[in-house]
């Protein structure tokens, strides 16, 4: 099949999933065309059947806001025609499903039918899309997609609760390429990060308020009172400054490393002992899954879809959002005993196997085939 994928090219989970999906489809000999405003960050290999088409938005002084949706739908029309694309798959409803629908309609005028699969990722539904300013347009573009998927049962329930949805929503969970992880473990350089007796605690995100970054600092503060430990904070975003300030105020800044955005998260996770994800909301928690496949147990909140990924008492522990005391106690329970830690590490990996690329990508292919047959 020839598949066009629209996504955000940044470090957000939706862009990562879309990129990994495109790479997996290309390995299965499908022809994949990424259409977005920048080469996706995880797309570091362009192969004969992976293509990237940049959406450029020319700046014009009249526009207070540059019309990205217009440029995207025009680029979609051109690319779909030029490369005879079979299926359009848009990730993150805003504004991709809306622009995709416009492209579909423009192509229909020329007698070209293109089925559109829309994947809902989380904040496009729970935070941004639910805002009254966007809600009618988001509802419309979901209802007018040919197939709609969500990355967890929890996100499906949220979508049905928050919007007037007339379409079936199929749950296709996020996934991970386990075989690729196995081969990249060779250069794990733990000694560069911490002393042998120190435990390494890690968090990776876009440092937005929804991630409750200061809870992470509080939990780590409690951990380091009980054992030698380091906290590795990976990512960039609005909450980073306040987290750094809090580390200074608590007198733990020497034990915390802020990395900024990284393309080498497997290298960081390979020497991590525990992953913290105390988010206010999380449709899935891809970062937790990436930790688990690297044998890193997870202390998380029980928000949204996280319980579908992190298995309480097996791959880690879950607590109510904001229950810093319980999260700290559970973290210490896992970290203070080598035997317990090793059991959780192995369990985390086993739980991650449920989300292997080979289990999940065929589900998308089956949906594309169904979308093609709709016409
Ligand atoms: O806020 C983020 O974590 C980024 C956001 C995105 O759309 O890029 O992530 C959402 O999609 C990810 C991939 O499906 C999920 O793993 C995240 O849980 C989800 N984030 C939220 O729901 C807050």
Query: Based on helices, strands and strand pairing, what is the structural class?
Result: alpha/beta
Order of helices and strands: EHEEHEHEHHEHEHEHEHEHEHEEHHH
Mean pLDDT score, rounded? 94
Q: Largest beta sheet, briefly?
A: 7 strands, parallel
Each distinct ligand: ligand GMT
For the terminal residues, how far apart are their CA atoms? 16 Å
What's the CATH first level of the largest domain?
Alpha Beta
Helicity range = 40-55%
Q: How much β-strand is present in the residues?
A: 15-25%
Kindly state the number of beta strands: 13
* Number of H/I helices: 14
Low-pLDDT residue spans: none
Shape: elongated
Count of individual domains: 2
CATH-derived topology of the largest domain: Rossmann fold
CATH-level-4 superfamily name of the largest domain: Glycogen Phosphorylase B
Radius of gyration (CA) equals 21 Å
Description:
With 375 residues, the protein is an alpha/beta fold. The longest helix has 18 residues, at 357-374. It has 2 domains: 2-175 and 356-374, Glycogen Phosphorylase B (Rossmann fold, 3-Layer(aba) Sandwich); 179-355, Glycogen Phosphorylase B (Rossmann fold), CATH 3.40.50. It contains 14 helices and 13 strands. It binds ligand GMT.
